[in-house]
Write the structure tokens for this entry.
Amino acid sequence: MALIRTHTKTFTDGVVTLRPMTDDDLPLLYRWNADPEFLHFSEGDVDPYTPEEVDSLYQSLSRSADCFIILVEDTPIGECRMQTIRSPFSPLLQSSTDCRRINITIGEPTFWGKEYGSHAIGLLCRFAFENTSCTHLFAEDIFDYNGRARKAFEKNGFKVYSTVPALSDEIPGTVTLFKGGVNKIF
Ligand SMILES: CC(C)(COP(=O)(O)OP(=O)(O)OC[C@H]1O[C@@H](n2cnc3c(N)ncnc32)[C@H](O)[C@@H]1OP(=O)(O)O)[C@@H](O)C(=O)NCCC(=O)NCCS
């Protein structure tokens, strides 16, 4: 049986393509998740993941998220996912919102800063708001030192939902961003 739950959605805007992640992508996921520079931005300063940990991680993630590989031409450069989350809004709004979360990581550092991340986020936003009942999309817990990630979401219309200040030099602050149809949510 396949480790990664797959799906059939593929999107493209002519610059990047998002295609379903499958078990065939595991060798790439092993390499990306063993790179300390990549992990510094995506997970913080954690130990590189072993292949067994990556297997277990994506097996679990793909149960609740649609997982995609980001392609530029035919080259896989990273991965992104979208999943439904519990609404963080007050009881009044909770029942009228359909909240989802985006995660994105470009695993090949030579492809950072070339707008591919912004394109991939844009494709997920279009899919969520035009083809599903999603009302709000979140990008949760972006590290305060990851200005590039924050900007890539802000370029797609995301705004600040909440911030958590840094606790020390070792424990950075984070920001959670959202994009949604209800303007005044607080
Ligand atoms: C975050 C990530 C997906 C962004 O994708 P990307 O293709 O590199 O980003 P883009 O080129 O689309 O956009 C980045 C924007 O941030 C800007 N930027 C770069 N470094 C920045 C910084 N330190 N502070 C503020 N803005 C910054 C760029 O100038 C660009 O904006 P512009 O197009 O208006 O000039 C990608 O860099 C990545 O995966 N990085 C490693 C893992 C990671 O950080 N994952 C996200 C975890 S929340």
Summary: Helices lie at 26-32, 36-42, 51-64, 91-94, 116-131, 147-154. The two ends are 45 Å apart (CA to CA). The chain has one domain: 11-180. Residues 38, 41-42, 78, 104-106, 112-118, 142, 146-149, 151-152, 155 surround coenzyme A (CB under 6 Å).
